[in-house]
């Protein structure tokens, strides 16, 4: 048992004070201490013992008395104890200010602490403990930099001052410099190895922040070894166990949290984690108790923020959004930046989104996104908010980003598909398919809604088979399989019987008798309805009827099924049954705007104008004028009232048109993309003659209606064609009518064919008009108006043909045939018994008959004249044709003759060349066999006469070349006249060949007698070295050669280039060719001269 002894003044006795038995009233101890003037260190010991025992008031009373001015004056020489007392009081008030939650009291405590530390500094400003106390105070106030300076002053004087090291380590930890903080904790532990376990707690926290979890766990476990009841270490280890995210770790962590709570029930961290645990177990009462306790015992901002967040989550999960929002906001106020604790921003965003405050929700989710830019849940939430705000592009951007960040998140693709379903059906379909595939790969069931959406999108894209597959997959097994014919025993009945007996439910009782369960789950009703709608589109009306009746059998209040059955009856032109079905729907809900609008439309078709108007007004009143269909129906009623075929009052007509325009405009103001309202407004403007404006409107409506199976608007195509017709643009009108017929009616609508025929009529295309009317008559044979129009078209065609300036017999005959047909048609109409029922006047028809007969008589006269003219023209054409054929035959004969002549020339040339070559070879052989001595003698004789004979030969040769060249051209001019008969040409060629062979034989005989050198000269192969010697002949043979040279020297000189292997002068070659041809064609007189030589 610890005791202290207070010495009695002026004696050796001492007063013994047991520290564990200190009196409750500290005044007794104070009296003894004052009376005996006890040393100040005893004051400190006793006050510290009071503090340990939790008697804080006695602790404060003793220290304040020990720091009173009397004590200071009496113990003026005692410096350390006085400073220690003041520092103890400063530390006490620093602690009070730190834990105080009210700001005013907090400030008061910090002021008192500052005063005590300043008083201690005045005693000794260099005392390290005072600076450590000041640093702790500044750290508690949040003045981290000044606290760091205070601790630094101490460490500059004493590097191993443990309190200063610990204080500076805390400063570095708060700065986020965990490595520096860890080093300081290590220095403190090295300086004082036996320090309390809290030092190692700091080491563990630094390790944890640095990601060194194993070493952090070791540090916390060491703290527990030193102090098994250290709450902070237990909480830290529990948090690490909880973060393991497995069942065993969570169990261990919660056990440590409970133990920490049992040791110290006011640990805010443990309270928050326990509240978090009980939140997930659904024990909200414990959550609220624990968080309220945590809020009462802590003033730490982040800790309080967690407490408020737990409390807000509890109220949020219970649906108390008002309190949840309040506590989320309180949690946000306890932190400085979203990065410190972002969860309350997300919760507050959810609450604001739930309450419809999209701007506030957007602000909170954006702050979450700043901290976690890739958080998919936040991105999806922002996408939904932007959808609500009408910013579809941003919504698409965020949802697309979410799907890219986590491509395995099926919900992201579902949200993206929901967003795109109204703007881009293709992308929406891809998103839904991706979500379906992800769910199937993950082994999760695909929701019926997803498969239904996929089917609807396929249906919109007119991919009906794929839509059917999706709907069947969404429905699975059920009674609908038997009703749609997908089971061996089918219960599909004939469509007309089904629609007439819509109240008969015997078929479903038979199904139950056959052991088939007639169950229709509520989440599959829409899918069955869509399946029936699909069968309607596939023209399986019987299946659609039985499915609608199945829905009514299980859910008799399903109004849409009645309305679809009414629509089928209306399509079959059974207006009474359709009205009956709509009335059945109105029995369920008498103010259903869709049923009322449909009833008004049926009454309008039934020509019950008054009832239709009242019904349509009721439909509009049922929705306070907000139902666009009812308003449109009223607009249509006013339009039809204005253009009725009865007596038309211009004033009343203008009133109805203006009212219709007002109603159409009202719908467009509410729904700017309503195509039907825009179409109606365009019709009214067209009726008023504003064709350009109405054409622009119809064009925009046509573009908007294209590409959707749910928007079938043939009316806008017809209206646009009417505008083109009114403007005189008949070609575009015809094209538009034809496109409308093909696209919407499969070319089977007689009314549009009538529009088309009228367009052809106005365009004066009578034959096209007649053909179109005949097609319409084929579709509607009982429509006498079409027959009358066909007769008028034939009459107009005949009149126009007869009025033409020039007519062919074919046209006149066609006119006669058309007039005969017109007379027959008008006669049939005149003989009809019910003529007046169709709106025809018998006198008018008889007038047409008489006029057509008159035209027929005139046409016959024109036909006879045209036929005579045609016969004359035919005879002229035949004569011209014969003349042309004769001319063509003559031209072909001339071309053939020229061709044969040219071919004979080529053959003659080829023969001549062969003969020249053979002659050259014979001369060459003779020259080789001649005596060389004779050649030398002849060369000497030729030397004397060479010069003169050479000159004469050259001069005469040139003159003869010119003459022969001329005769050659003249001969070619005369050749066509000489070769009219092929047999004469052949005889002449034969004679020429004979003469040429004779001439060659004579030349050969002469050459045998002459010198071989002369033979070479004659062949154009004389030796260049002996040219001068060979010029003058020395014998009779030489004179004979000279005479030959003067008379016919050109032939051998011209043959030289022909016979030479190397031809250098093309001009000489041409002359030689011409001379040879001349020689070949010389008359017999020339041959005689050669023989004489």
From TrEMBL:
GO BP terms, alphabetized: regulation of DNA-templated transcription; transcription elongation by RNA polymerase II
GO cellular component: Cdc73/Paf1 complex
Gene3D superfamilies according to UniProt: Tetratricopeptide repeat domain
Signal sequence range: none
Keywords: Repeat, TPR repeat
Claim: Repeat is one of the keywords in the record: yes
Basic and acidic residues: bias regions: 863-879, 887-925, 1074-1085
Residue ranges, compositional bias (Acidic residues): 972-989, 1003-1012
Statement: the UniProt record of this protein carries the keyword Transferase: no
Start-end of each TPR repeat: 128-161, 197-230, 342-375, 376-409, 714-747
Biased composition, class Basic residues, residue ranges: 950-964
A GO term for molecular function: RNA polymerase II complex binding
Top-level division of the source organism's lineage: Eukaryota
InterPro entries (UniProt xref): Ctr9, TPR-like_helical_dom_sf, TPR_rpt
Pfam families assigned: TPR_19 (PF14559), TPR_8 (PF13181)
Disordered as annotated region, ranges: 863-1093
Listed PANTHER family: RNA POLYMERASE-ASSOCIATED PROTEIN CTR9, RNA POLYMERASE-ASSOCIATED PROTEIN CTR9 HOMOLOG
Protein name per UniProt: Protein CTR9 homolog
Species annotation: Hibiscus trionum (Flower of an hour)
């Amino acid at each position: 048992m610890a005791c202290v002894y207070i010495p009695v003044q002026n004696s050796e006795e001492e007063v013994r004070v047991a520290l564990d038995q200190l009196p409750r009233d500290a005044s007794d101890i104070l009296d003894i201490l004052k009376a005996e003037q006890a040393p100040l260190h005893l004051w400190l010991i006793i006050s510290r013992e009071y503090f340990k025992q939790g008697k804080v008031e006695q602790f404060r009373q003793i220290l304040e008395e020990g720091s009173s001015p009397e004590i200071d004056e009496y113990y003026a020489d005692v410096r350390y104890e006085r400073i220690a007392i003041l520092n103890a009081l400063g530390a006490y008030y620093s602690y009070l200010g730190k834990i105080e939650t009210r700001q005013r009291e907090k400030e008061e405590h910090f002021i008192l602490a500052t005063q005590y530390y300043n008083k201690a500094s005045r005693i000794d400003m260099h005392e390290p403990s005072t600076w450590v106390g000041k640093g702790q105070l500044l750290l508690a106030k949040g003045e981290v930099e000044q606290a760091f300076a205070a601790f630094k002053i101490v460490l500059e004087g004493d590097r191993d001052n443990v309190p200063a090291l610990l204080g500076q380590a805390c400063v570095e930890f708060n700065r986020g410099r965990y490595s520096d903080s860890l080093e300081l904790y290590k220095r403190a532990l090295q300086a004082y190895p036996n320090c309390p376990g809290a030092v190692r707690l700091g080491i563990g926290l630094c390790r944890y922040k640095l990601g060194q979890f194993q070493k952090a766990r070791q540090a916390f476990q060491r703290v527990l070894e030193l102090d098994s009841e250290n709450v902070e270490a237990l909480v830290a280890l529990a948090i690490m166990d909880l973060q393991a995210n497995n069942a065993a770790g969570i169990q261990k962590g919660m056990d440590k949290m409970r133990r920490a709570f049992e040791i110290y029930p006011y640990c805010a961290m443990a309270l928050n984690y326990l509240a978090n645990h009980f939140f997930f177990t659904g024990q909200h009462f414990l959550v609220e108790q624990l968080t309220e306790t945590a809020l009462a015992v802590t003033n730490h901002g982040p800790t309080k923020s967690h407490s408020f967040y737990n409390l807000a989550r509890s109220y949020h999960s219970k649906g108390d959004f008002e309190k949840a929002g309040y506590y989320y906001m309180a949690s946000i106020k306890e932190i400085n930046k979203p990065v410190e604790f972002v969860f309350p921003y997300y919760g507050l965003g959810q609450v604001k989104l739930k309450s419809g405050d999209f701007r506030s929700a957007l602000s909170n989710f954006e702050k979450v996104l700043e901290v976690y830019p890739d958080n998919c849940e936040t991105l999806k939430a922002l996408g939904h908010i932007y959808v609500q705000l009408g910013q579809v592009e941003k919504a698409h951007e965020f949802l697309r980003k979410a799907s890219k960040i986590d491509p395995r998140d099926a919900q992201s693709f579902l949200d993206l598909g929901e967003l795109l379903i109204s703007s881009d059906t293709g992308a929406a379909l891809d998103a839904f398919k991706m979500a379906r595939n992800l769910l199937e790969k993950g082994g999760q069931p695909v929701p019926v809604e997803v498969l239904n959406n996929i089917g609807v999108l396929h249906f919109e894209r007119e991919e009906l088979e794929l839509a059917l597959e999706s709907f069947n997959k969404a429905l699975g097994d059920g009674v609908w399989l038997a009703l749609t014919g997908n089971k061996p025993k089918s219960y599909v009945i004939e469509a007309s019987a089904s629609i007439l007996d819509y109240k008969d439910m015997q078929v479903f009782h038979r199904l139950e008798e056959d052991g088939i369960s007639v169950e229709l789950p509520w989440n599959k009703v829409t899918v069955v309805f869509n399946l029936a709608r699909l069968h309607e589109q596939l023209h399986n009306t019987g299946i659609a009827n039985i499915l609608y009746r199945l829905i009514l059998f299980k859910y008799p209040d399903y109004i849409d099924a009645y309305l679809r059955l009414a629509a089928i009856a209306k399509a079959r032109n059974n207006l009474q049954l359709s009205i009956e079905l709509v009335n059945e729907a109105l029995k369920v809900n008498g103010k259903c705007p869709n049923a009322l609008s449909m009833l008004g439309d049926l009454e309008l078709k039934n020509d019950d104008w008054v009832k239709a108007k009242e019904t349509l007004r009721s439909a509009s009143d049922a929705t306070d004028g907000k139902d666009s269909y009812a308003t449109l129906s009223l607009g249509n009623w006013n339009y039809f009232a204005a253009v009725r075929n009865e007596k038309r009052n211009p004033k009343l007509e203008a009133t109805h048109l203006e009212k219709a325009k007002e109603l159409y405009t009202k719908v467009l103001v509410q729904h700017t993309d309503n195509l039907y309202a825009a179409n109606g407004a365009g019709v009214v403007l067209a009726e008023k003659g504003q064709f350009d404006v109405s054409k622009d409107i119809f064009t925009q409506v046509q573009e908007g209606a294209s590409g959707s199976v749910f928007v079938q608007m043939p009316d806008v195509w017809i209206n646009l064609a009417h505008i083109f017709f009114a403007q005189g643009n008949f070609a575009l009108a015809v094209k538009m009518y034809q496109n409308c017929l093909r696209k919407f009616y499969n070319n089977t609508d007689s009314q549009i064919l009538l529009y088309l025929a009228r367009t052809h009529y106005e365009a004066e295309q009578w034959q096209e008009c007649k053909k179109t009317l005949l097609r319409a008559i084929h579709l509607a044979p009982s429509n006498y108006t079409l027959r009358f129009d066909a007769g008028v078209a034939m009459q107009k065609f005949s009149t126009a043909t007869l009025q033409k300036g020039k007519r062919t017999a074919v046209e006149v005959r066609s006119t006669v045939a058309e007039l005969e047909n017109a007379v027959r048609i008008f006669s049939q109409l005149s003989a009809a018994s019910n003529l007046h029922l169709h709106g025809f006047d018998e006198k008018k028809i008889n007038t047409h008959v008489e006029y057509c007969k008159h035209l027929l008589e005139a046409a016959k006269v024109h036909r006879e004249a045209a036929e005579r003219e045609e016969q004359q023209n035919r005879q002229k054409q035949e004569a011209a044709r014969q003349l042309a054929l004769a001319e063509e035959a003559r031209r072909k004969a001339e071309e053939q003759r020229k061709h044969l002549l040219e071919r004979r020339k080529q053959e003659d040339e080829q023969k001549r060349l062969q003969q020249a070559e053979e002659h050259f070879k014979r001369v060459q052989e003779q020259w080789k066999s001649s005596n060389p001595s004779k050649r030398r003698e002849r060369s000497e004789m030729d030397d004397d006469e060479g010069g003169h004979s050479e000159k004469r030969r050259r001069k005469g040769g040139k003159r003869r070349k010119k003459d022969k060249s001329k005769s050659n051209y003249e001969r070619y001019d005369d050749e066509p006249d000489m070769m009219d008969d092929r047999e004469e040409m052949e005889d002449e060629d034969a004679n020429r060949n004979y003469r040429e062979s004779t001439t060659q034989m004579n030349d050969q005989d002469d050459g045998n007698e002459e010198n071989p050198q002369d033979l070479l000269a004659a062949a154009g192969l004389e030796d260049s070295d002996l040219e001068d010697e060979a010029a003058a002949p020395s014998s009779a043979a030489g004179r004979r050669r000279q005479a030959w040279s003067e008379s016919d020297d050109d032939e051998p000189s011209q043959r030289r280039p022909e016979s030479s292997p190397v031809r250098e002068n093309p001009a000489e070659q041409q002359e030689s060719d011409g001379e040879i041809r001349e020689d070949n064609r010389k008359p017999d007189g020339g041959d005689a001269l050669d023989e004489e030589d």
